[in-house]
Amino acid sequence: MDLTLLMNTSMLLMLTLIITPTILPILSSTSKASPDTTTQAIKAAFLTSLVPLTLFLYSSSDNITYCWQWKFITNFNIPFSLKFDQYSMMFFPIALFVTWSIMQFASWYMATDPYITKFFSYLSLFLIAMLILTTANNMFLLFIGWEGVGIMSFLLIGWWQGRMEANTAALQAVLYNRIGDIGLILSMAWLASTTNSWELQQAISVTQTPTLPLLGLILAAAGKSAQFGLHPWLPNAMEGPTPVSALLHSSTMVVAGIFLLIRTHPMFTNNQTALTTCLCLGALSTLFAATCALTQNDIKKIIAFSTSSQLGLMMVTIGLNLPQLAFLHISTHAFFKAMLFICSGSIIHNLNGEQDIRKMGGLQKMLPTTTSCLTIGNLALMGTPFLAGFYSKDLIIENLNMSYVNTWALLLTLTATSFTATYSLRMTSLVQTGFTRILTIMPINENNSNITNPITRLALGSIMAGLLITSYTTPMKTLPMTMPLYVKTSAIILTILGIMLAIELSNMTHSITQPKQNLLLNFSSSLGYFNPLTHRLMPMSLLNTGQKLSSHLIDLSWYKKMGPEGLTDLQLMMTKKSTTLHTGLIKTYLGSFALSILITLLMHTD
Amino acid sequence: HQQRVLRLYKKSLRHLESWCIHRDKYRYFACLLRDRFDKNKDVKDMVKATELLKAGEEEFWANQHPQPYIFPDSPGGTAYERYECYKIPEWCLDFWHPSEKAMYPDYFAKREQWKKLQRESWDKELKQLEEETPPDGPKTEALPPARKEGHLPPLWWHYVTRPREIPM
């Protein structure tokens, strides 16, 4: 049996399965896709995608499928080729699994929405764009996928378009992504002019790339993956419905930036500046996001900040020159983050729209499956030994400890690890334990299999995925094998420290002392003052300059400075300087004239 | 003055609730706060009362919670105006096909009479609004009630035909 043929056939089948429910209702007027058909299609696609994955793992051969060539200009061709290497082959089943679970959940969550079919078609369009991005072999297709996920993110965040904050958040997401796109286009332009092609094979063959295109790529990743500086859109993107947050902003879209860096990784290897930039940027965003998550009171925002923090960690991994480990973290993170979002969505819907953890408590008895899966997800996030997060997170921290990097970046990442434990525990304890503080007595149940099945499936994934993926991927770089015991267990010790801090703080909330604002709380709660500073200060100054330019420039410059006033200014300056010299003592001048003429005459007659 | 004091009390209770998450602690501090308000309940001197109010407001401002708990459906909450895009104005009902209108015969039978009533009372409502707005423009968004016998309150049609809070 020809393995290549089998692999290609199954890939084609899978792509057809995904595309059909989305595109067919547009083309034909009679067939309509319902949410259930889309969910079943994605489930079938997931099961089909396991076939190429298994084939790939046993043959370990990269595959590049060459579809069509667009002859742009004479010596510049854009072939539409798809690359099926370990990254995209591993990503397909994971993305499809997560999407299947999310769609099943969304068929319960959005059941009262009149446009639910449109919602599902948006979700599948997003999935198609994401898959184009991951399988792209050249920057052009990658850019198509990149913009595609950006647009779908805009449409999905602003799903409830009557709500002002949702529209603002969607616009913010698009604008921040656009700023990142500048970097991407810069590096694409450099690539096209230097290597005369946009293929990744040509891109990675350039060993000594100048820093500028690399900085462009880092900017693109920072914009898409919400690193510090371009991060405000991610917490605000929680205005969209929970399935949107689960799919886009936890597992798939936000890893697009990191994926770009993984794909173009050989360009980075020799350039220490770019690697250090990645490292420091990632460390800063991890810590910043973890600090902001400590005092948030909205479940979805806490999980959004934790996503941002883990993305910073992925950036740190790239800065450590370990793309495979970053991809491993992407895969494991997808499972437990999507599960966390789905659990929170189930809680929110059951409490009739209540998102504030101050008004939730004692849900353990009422929603046992959901809350236990919430706990599993949080444990996986914290990097508990042998759950999914452990395999990637612990390895990252070990490598960070053992390599010759910035100590500052190391310290930031370690602090962020303990903060992760703190806010996760805070969230779980306030949501699940204690006396119930919910507002009204709602019929809270999880009897619907559309909720429990996705959650348990993803829980199973979070537990097993780490083990499965690491046992089937061969590492490309040798990881450090020997290290002192305290370094090896540093991640666990920090997590335990974070847990102890959380327990201490929750004991403080129970004690009878009046809480007050203090500086740290203010910094953390207002997200580090970043939002008001950048969103108000910069545009105001730019607009003021623009207004001055437009209203005053013409009058001021052409009619005054060029003509009379300019001349006046010049003359005045000169005259003022020379006035002081001009003392007006005529007699002294005449005397000096006479003296000098006398001396000259005497000298000449001599 | 009474309204301002009561508003300060309610605001401070809500922010206290945002600070003290657990109910027993909140109840303790709420009782302390109530006692502080009750001690100055009988102050008749307006100057002193206003000074107390001002001090209270300043203390509130200093101690407020940066992310106070806002109910999801109230302005600023997470679900506010969420369904605004699904609310359709009532004049769309005029565009329904007769077969669709036949599904709700009693409503559409009465609808013509309601619309006739609206046309008749529109001039009177407008006249009342014109008389009652101050010359600089309206100060609040509240509409005045109907003043004369047999008249309807101004702009009643928009209130009566407003869409449901959570459409469908």
UniProtKB/TrEMBL annotation, chain A:
Sequence ranges assigned to domain NADH:quinone oxidoreductase/Mrp antiporter transmembrane in this UniProt record: 136-418
EC numbers, comma separated: 7.1.1.2
Gene Ontology terms: cellular component: mitochondrial inner membrane
Membrane topology reported for the UniProt record: Multi-pass membrane protein
Primary subcellular site in the record, as a coarse category: mitochondrion
Transmembrane segments: 6-28, 86-103, 115-133, 139-161, 173-192, 242-262, 274-295, 302-322, 373-392, 404-425, 455-473, 485-503, 584-603
Highest taxon above the source species: Eukaryota
This protein's record includes keyword Ligase: no
Keyword Nuclease in record: no
Domain (NADH-Ubiquinone oxidoreductase (complex I) chain 5 N-terminal) ranges: 70-120
Job of this protein: Core subunit of the mitochondrial membrane respiratory chain NADH dehydrogenase (Complex I) which catalyzes electron transfer from NADH through the respiratory chain, using ubiquinone as an electron acceptor. Essential for the catalytic activity and assembly of complex I.
Database matches in PANTHER family: NADH-UBIQUINONE OXIDOREDUCTASE CHAIN 5
Name used for this protein in its record: NADH-ubiquinone oxidoreductase chain 5
Gene behind this protein: ND5
From TrEMBL, chain B:
Cellular component, GO annotation: mitochondrial inner membrane
Region (Disordered) residue spans: 125-151
Highest taxon above the source species: Eukaryota
GO biological process, one term: mitochondrial electron transport, NADH to ubiquinone
Localization in the cell: Mitochondrion inner membrane
Keyword match Cytoplasm: no
UniProt domain Complex 1 LYR protein: residue ranges: 3-61
Pfam families attached to this UniProt entry: Complex1_LYR
Membrane disposition: Peripheral membrane protein
Keywords: Acetylation, Electron transport, Membrane, Mitochondrion, Mitochondrion inner membrane, Phosphoprotein, Respiratory chain, Transport
Function according to Swiss-Prot or TrEMBL: Accessory subunit of the mitochondrial membrane respiratory chain NADH dehydrogenase (Complex I), that is believed to be not involved in catalysis. Complex I functions in the transfer of electrons from NADH to the respiratory chain. The immediate electron acceptor for the enzyme is believed to be ubiquinone.
PANTHER family found in the cross-reference section: NADH DEHYDROGENASE [UBIQUINONE] 1 BETA SUBCOMPLEX SUBUNIT 9 (PTHR12868:SF0), NADH-UBIQUINONE OXIDOREDUCTASE B22 SUBUNIT (PTHR12868)
Family under the similarity heading: Belongs to the complex I LYR family.
Assembly: Mammalian complex I is composed of 45 different subunits.
Protein name, UniProt field: NADH dehydrogenase [ubiquinone] 1 beta subcomplex subunit 9
Classification lineage: Eukaryota, Metazoa, Chordata, Craniata, Vertebrata
Gene encoding the protein: Ndufb9
